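FW: tagging you since you asked about this chain on Friday. Here's the raw sequence from the shared folder, copied in full. Didn't touch anything.
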Amino acid sequence: MFKDRKLIVQDIGLIAYELAWRYQQNMVSSRKKTSNLEDVLILTEHFPVYTLGTGSQDRFIHFDLSDPGYEVHRVERGGEVTYHCPGQLVAYPILNLANHRQDLHWYLRQLEEVIVRTLGHYGILGKRIKGLTGVWVDDYKIAAVGIKVSRWITMHGVALNVCSDLSGFKQITPCGIADRPVGTMTQFLPGVSVADVKPIFVKHFSEVFDLWVSNVEISPSELCDYADDIKI
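HL: got it, structure written out here
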């Protein structure tokens, strides 16, 4: 099928969570004002950080939230507590679902499909579990999905454990699911890196959402312009 809509891909590298969060908020705010702006896919990794969805329950956090040794942010996405760290590919799609399908369940399943196809490229069988959000391999949760959609503009997204150190997950009950462990792609494909996976992820994202890709670089100084608080 001919793709007539552009996807701007911005790889912003390893960056503090809060800066990427504010950058997303700016993107969403701009698209609420100007609805015909192009879709964007932000790719990143984060320094160790815990994030909580709007309804996250403190009982799933196994450390003192007042401890300055842990960076924690409560954000506007759905879902429970999760953990980000280097070696985890984090993707934040900023899409206008009015140009796709105005259906949140459809959108979640499409994000999962991107992960399933990305894993499949490497011969890894990813699967969904009925009633849960995310992607599993042999009962290990490989990818978490948490979104926010406002006036059909999306933010937040997916986190795929590629070669991450999972020790930080021991301090929480990830996504509130106590009986299913977290895993990484390297358990099933030793030596794979985030750099390896990024182009494969982008390829499948563009196919699933029927978009053509335009890679656009953004400098650290440009990102810093978005560090101020932006309320949606």
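FW: Helices lie at 17-33, 104-121, 194-208, 220-224.
HL: agreed, and Residues 104-121 form the longest helix (18 residues).
FW: great, closing this out.
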